[in-house]
Amino acid sequence: MNQWPVIQILLPLIAAPLCALVTREKFAWALAAIITWGALVVAIVLNSQVLEQSPISYQLGGWAPPWGIELRIDSLNAMLLLLITGIAAVVITAARESIRKEIDEEKIPLYYTAYLLLLASMIGICITGDAFNVFVFLEISSLSTYALIAMGRDRRALIATFRYLIMGTIGATFILISIGLLYQLTGTLNMADLAERLPALHGNRVMQAAFGFFILGVSIKVALYPLHYWLPNGYTYAPSVVSAFLAGTATKVSLYVMLRFIFGIFGVDFSFEVIQVQHVLMPMAVAGILVGSMAAIYQDDIKRVLAYSSVAQLSYIVLGISIASETSLTASVVHIFNHGLVKSALFLCVAAMVYSVGSSKLEDLSGAAKRMPWTVAAFAVAGISLVGVPLTAGFITKWYLILAVIEYGWWPLAMVLVISSLMAVAYVWRVLDYLWFKPMSEKVAAHGARPPRTILIPAALLSFTCIYFGIDTGVTLGAADRVVQALLGATP
Amino acid sequence: MTIESIAPALLIAVPVFVALLGAANMSRANVRDGVSIVGTILTLICTIVLYPATLRGENLDWVLLAPIEDIAIRLTVEPLGLLFATVAAVLWIPTTLYAIGYMRKNKEEHHTQFFFCFAVSIGATMGIALAGNLLTLFIFYEMLTLATYPLVTHKGTEDAQRGGRTYLSLLLTTSIGFLLPAIIITWGVTGTLDFKAGGILQGNLDPVYLPWLVALFAFGVGKAALMPFHRWLPGAMVAPTPVSALLHAVAVVKAGVFTITKVVVYVIGVDFLAETGAGEAMMWVAAFTLTAASIIAMRQDNLKARLAYSTIGQLSYVVLGAMLAVAAGVYGAAMHIVMHAVGKITLFFCAGAIYVHTKKTKISELNGLGRKMPFTFGAFFVAALCIIGLPPLGGAWSKWFLITASFDTGHWIMAAVLIISSLLNIAYLLPIVANGFFRPSEDNEKQGIDEAPLMMVIPLCVTASMCLLAFLFGDAIYSFVQLIPLR
Amino acid sequence: MSAYFNYWAVFALMLLGLYATIASDNLVKKVVGLNIFQTSVFFLFITMGKVGGGTAPIADSQYTLYSNPLPHVLILTAIVVSVATTALALALVIRIRESYSSIEESDIQAEDEAQP
């Protein structure tokens, strides 16, 4: 039997405790880096296999589904695997220097342990075909995220983590309730099996309750407005590379769960015709886009700007899901991928700046371009992609989203998208104005120096991919096309 | 693959390459400046190469890449765009010479950044000129905005920062707030963004909505400086004079009016616009702008500010011409892009020469200076006449066509506005020359000729003679603009 | 109504827990509330596995009717998760107390606002 799916999870899962045993920072990093790059290789192998045969089904311990746990890889989660492991690999390469500066020496092996655990659990969420397993991995990923954020130097990281923990646990528990109710209804936890049995129960109130609990829980995890409160503080006070990793992957994985449950388990007919979830998701997404973008303009910390922009960008994806047409889903799926790259690139650039200047406040970073032009240039490239300038990755998704909206003739919604682009210009420009054109701050003058290549090159690499995927869209759009066909075709 | 087939791409690639090469040689000033000059000549050659095919009536097409199906980044050579590209390429040569002289004499800092952004701006301008669809045009339009921003704030003073902020915020807001929606709407109703002779909107858009779309386009192109979105232009005059000269007399502002003309001809369609009369409202806006700008220009004492407001007025001539939606109007508009470019660049060159040589920026300080700097003031006089539109200078042709077009379409008021505004042009341009030559100067220490550096005087004399040539070869230009397909 | 008494109990516990989590100012009380909330969900799972009249699921020919064991297994996992979460939350509270010398949220907020 093809063993790659299980290797994908086991690799980081086994390495994580090993990392905790290693005492030397250097070896811990090396182990984590090798494992993460290895995971990326496995993800690439799986992607090529999915192209030939989809889905790949792996029976854990040889127990056939629906009794045993099934690992199931189709084009959607193969893409997610590639995104997660890719970003993880790039971030960990950059992490070493930054982490040595931002985390106490003796905690560093534990940091890598939590990092690998987070990676393993996110892979697990994506790869599993079992609904309860999703909950377990979701909680593992949350726990390791809490640990990682709490490692931030600022004491506000602690309270931010605590609030995130409360919100995250409530969200996960809601999802657990939903899974419990589904089990009660059907007696199965296997996703494919659930999808087969649920259509017969469309009028059932328990199923509707399960759906309600799920949407509520996952909305917290996705940081959908107005449940986004935990995200900005978490990203701001976490160590910089942690923000880079989380911003690119964590919320994307939650969005994957949302897509998988809405389309793969509950089904399009139930979600959009019986329950009409679009009437809930769409207003929330629109509000998230506007409020997030607006808030991003007025932040005085560069990480906060990016965090609020994440709230807005995630709402784009949810908006695409709520429209649920072929075009809009393409936009959402591609944006999951593109925004992951863009945000990681931006946060890595910030990590580089924080490394040399020691602060992420805009005031402190003003004029940084004079000391680290390449870092700021990489930031600028990723920034214009965030705005959605043509020839960048961000444009592709905005274009498809606007297309989807126009298909239905929803001009006000198109206006919202244009206005939000304008606001994105404003907040990206404001940051660049500080970095590039304002006079140099004292901190930059005192500490500003070129950040080490190990941070700069990964950051520049990710920025480059933001351009690359804006020009060569064959890969992303092709994958998205297959994903969308599967999502919409999965329903009878 | 012939040279013709890749020339459109080269036209953009050469300036960008020059920029990169210049940046790589940042420590060697002579190499960098030499590269700039060679690049300008290569660019001009590239434009000339495009002429034979265009004269034969072929449209060279070059698809750079197509990120999304149906929407390519494409360059298409057509007469209007080629005309604009030629203007920019031709004027880039004297400007580069002039800029080298200006920057060295004036001891400005960050030469390399300056030349880098300058060359990138030219590349973006070429992209606008040759854009084959609205999306490509939009990309290069925004690129031009961003590339020129560092030039505007070059001095780094508080004033420059403020001017730069106005510049950027107005141009970005209008382009994303109005132009982008206009493009999206166009795409929404027609399913294509390609420029096509005769326009793409006819039959696809309910004429009731057309005036609104026209307004979105006209105001969205903030670079055309239609009131009330003109504030950026006077603000941008804090830039070094070569920048003001090329970018704010030629590339940036002309990119604006060029875009509007191109949209009228190739997207909306002249006939469709004429049938529906959708250009009427914008015509009035343009008429108001050109009158108001001329009146404001009269009250400016700062020479560059006066020229800036004069530019705002002259740009509206082009918009007005395009909105008349008749052949003579479009031809007049296209010709005015050329005529005003050579005239205004000369005026700015003169302003820069005066500033570099005497550090004077106020018009009231220029009394008697003409006797000291006869070449500069002579060139100023020639260019002023060109702007006013008196024969034997180029401006006469374009104004002639614009006024006849107004008469032909029965827009008597527009014709009157054009004539009155030309009178106002006389009122705000000629006194400068008259005072320069005939008024006694205030400091009588030195007599005799005391000109600006040769590197600056030669370019401005060259462009001044171009004003003359433009009149003499007006027929050739006219027969070329007649190639613009109107239906 | 009475046939569903278990669900009512679960429901009451759930609301109680949520209320405690959201309304209390003390961080430890928040953790307690979170625990009550999670426990209510465990009850939900356990009661749904119960089959009326069934015994424990022991593989013996004597018994034919037995409760569904799977929810119990699931909830064992969930309990482990919940314990881990609680431990982590309490560890955080300890560190918050060390650096803020308070575990009242309003105090912490005031301290943060006073010193940006």
Keywords:
heterotrimer, A: 492 residues, mainly alpha, two-stranded antiparallel sheet, 21 helices, C: 116 residues, Helix Hairpins, 0% strand, elongated
Structural class estimated from helices and strands of chain A: mainly alpha
Helix proportion of residues of chain C, in percent?
Answer: over 70%
The biggest beta sheet of chain C reads:
none
Low confidence ranges of chain C: none
Radius of gyration of chain A: 21 Å
What CATH architecture of chain C do you see?
Answer: Orthogonal Bundle
- Proportion in helices of chain A: over 70%
What would you call the shape of chain C? elongated
Instruction: Report the strand count of chain A.
Output: 2
Mean pLDDT across all amino acids of chain C:
86
Distance between the termini of chain A: 30 Å
Name the overall outline of chain A.
globular
Written description of the protein model:
The complex is a heterotrimer of chains A (492), B (487) and C (116). With 492 residues, chain A is an all-alpha fold. Helix content of chain A is 79%, strand content 2%. Chain A contains 21 helices and 2 strands. A two-stranded antiparallel ribbon of chain B has the order 1-2. With 116 residues, chain C is an all-alpha fold. In chain C, helix 2 (27-49) packs antiparallel against helix 3 (70-100). Classes of the chains: A mainly alpha (492), B mainly alpha (487), C mainly alpha (116). Chains in contact: A-B, A-C. Chains A and C meet through helix 5 and helix 6 of A and helix 2 and helix 3 of C.
Characterize this entry briefly.
The complex is a heterotrimer of chains A (492), B (487) and C (116). Chain B has 487 residues and is an all-alpha fold.
Secondary-structure map with pairings?
The complex is a heterotrimer of chains A (492), B (487) and C (116).
Chain A lengths: L3 H18 L3 H28 L3 E4 L10 E4 L1 H28 L5 H20 L3 H20 L5 H31 L4 H7 L7 H18 L7 H8 L2 H27 L1 H7 L3 H20 L4 H22 L2 H32 L4 H4 L7 H15 L5 H15 L3 H27 L4 H6 L5 H19 L2 H16 L3
Antiparallel strand pairs in A: 1-2
Helix pairs in contact in A: 1-2, 1-4, 2-3, 2-4, 3-4, 3-10, 3-14, 3-20, 4-5, 4-10, 5-6, 5-10, 6-8, 6-9, 7-10, 8-10, 9-10, 9-13, 10-11, 10-13, 10-14, 12-13, 12-18, 13-14, 13-17, 14-16, 14-17, 14-20, 14-21, 16-18, 16-20, 17-18, 17-20
Chain B lengths: L2 H22 L4 H21 L1 H5 L5 E8 L2 E6 L2 H28 L4 H20 L3 H19 L5 H33 L19 H11 L11 H4 L5 H28 L1 H7 L3 H19 L4 H21 L3 H32 L10 H4 L1 H15 L6 H14 L3 H27 L15 H19 L1 H8 L6
Antiparallel strand pairs in B: 1-2
Helix pairs in contact in B: 1-2, 1-5, 2-4, 2-5, 4-5, 4-10, 4-14, 4-19, 5-6, 5-10, 6-7, 6-10, 7-8, 10-11, 10-13, 10-14, 12-13, 12-18, 13-14, 13-18, 14-16, 14-17, 14-19, 16-18, 16-19, 17-18
Chain C lengths: L4 H19 L3 H23 L20 H31 L4 H10 L2
